[in-house]
Amino acid sequence: MGFYRVAAGDTLSRIATGYGRPVQDIAEWNGLPANATVAPGQLLRVAPIKTASAIVVSGLQSGVDRTGSNNGTAMEKASLRPDGFTWPLNGPVLTRFVQGRHGNIEIGGKPGELVKAAAAGRVVYAGTGIHKYGALVIIKHDKNLITAYGHNSILLVKDGDAVAQGQPISEVGVSNAGMPSIQFEMRMNGKPVDPLSYLPAF
């Protein structure tokens, strides 16, 4: 999968053994000393960065989960209307969607402010596998549509979690430009669409 969420009683050494990796590798991929103490709920990279990044990109392109399944069931039963979304964060739009150039919007906020699911669905990715998105959550809403929430500070959900519309999924972090904000992206059949076409007017 590329990432592991620490359970009670885990140690860095035990996790490394479980994934067949040297403890030094696990420590290096997470910016930790080899003798670091890990805490329950902490998310650790357990695969090389290149592998984890490929997983994230694949998820954004196809909307499938990290095992490659279509993750149908309850999500495929949801038929999302264009007006069926809510804002993940109440803040100004700092950067707008531009077809072919900028595939998302950036919404300003305050550090630590709660980010909420724009619609009900299932978390198919929660991690830090690619620098462009920082701490990232991807939610699959039906067989065609996903939303992605990047540049978070703390993730409040994990892979496989079912989420309700408006449920907190993360906390606002800081963008690569140093602005407290989130990067919000919507993809239909793997292609970026303008979130402002789906979100209600303020």
From TrEMBL:
It comes from the Bacteria. SUPFAM superfamilies: Duplicated hybrid motif. Gene3D superfamilies: Glucose Permease (Domain IIA), LysM domain. SMART domains: LysM. It holds the Pfam family LysM. Residues 2-46 form the LysM domain. InterPro entries: Cell_wall_metabolism_enzyme (IPR050570), Dup_hybrid_motif (IPR011055), LysM (IPR018392), LysM_dom_sf (IPR036779), M23ase_b-sheet_dom (IPR016047). This is Peptidase M23. It comes from Paraburkholderia hospita.
